[in-house]
Amino acid sequence: MKTYLPKASEDLRTWHLIDADGAVLGRLAVQVANLLRGRNKPVYTPHMDAGDFVVVINAEKVRVTGKKETAKEYMSYSGWRGGEKYRSVASVREKHPEDLIHRAVKGMVPKNRLGRQLLTKLKVYKGAAHPHSAQKPEPMKVAG
Questions:
Q1: 75-94 pLDDT, tens per residue?
Q2: DSSP labels, 93-135
Q3: How far is CA 23 from CA 9, 57, 65, in A?
Q4: Facing residues of 86 across strands?
Q5: Do 130 and 57 touch, CB atoms closer than 8 A?
Q6: Which candidate, 108, 78, 104, 72, places its Cα nearest to that of 91?
Q7: Across the beta sheet with 53-57, what order do the strands follow?
Q8: 27 and 34 Cβ atoms separated by less than 8 Å
Q9: How far apart are CA 16 and CA 32, in angstroms?
Q10: Residue 101's Cα: distance from chain center in Å?
Q11: What are residue 138's DSSP bridge partners?
């Protein structure tokens, strides 16, 4: 018996709209990562991009549990000596709330070319407005 592999011509990508208002960051990121990879489809193949586009709105209203708002830190490195910067969740939420969701999803996709390709289908926006209404994204509920 041959293994079925979906062809690019058969690809039917849909757009999903997820409201992050009050959603827990990790649970939201798992759901988004699964949609990006196509794990909700019967044609899911680990080494292929069979996933859908995901639009996340209200990124600044995402919730973190416990003491993560002040204790969890994101590190970035410029490449220069002494170029490490640490930012708490609260400071990232102030300046770039989209980064909270983007970093969480990035950690849940493969760390290779496929993962970078999947992340191009993730659109995260601060506030309820987004420029993808022409694609008619279907609203989804965040599980949990």
A1: 999 999 999 999 999 999 99
A2: HHH-THHHHHHHHHTTS-SSHHHHHHHTTEEE-SSS--S-GGG
A3: 35, 11, 10
A4: 75
A5: yes
A6: 72
A7: 122-124, 53-57, 15-19, 138-140
A8: no
A9: 9
A10: 6
A11: 16
Topology of the domain comprising 13-64+96-140: Ribosomal Protein L13p; Chain: A; (3.90.1180)
8 Å CB contact between 142 and 18: yes
Tokens 């690809």 -> residue:
11
Q: How many CA atoms lie within 13 A of 9 on its CB side?
A: 0
Write down how long the chain is: 144
- Do residues 17 and 138 make contact, with C-beta atoms less than 8 angstroms apart? yes
**Considering all CA atoms of the chain, what is the largest pairwise distance in Å, rounded to the nearest integer?**
57
The pTM score is: 0.92
Tell me what pLDDT residue 144 has: 67
What three-state secondary structure class fits 24? strand
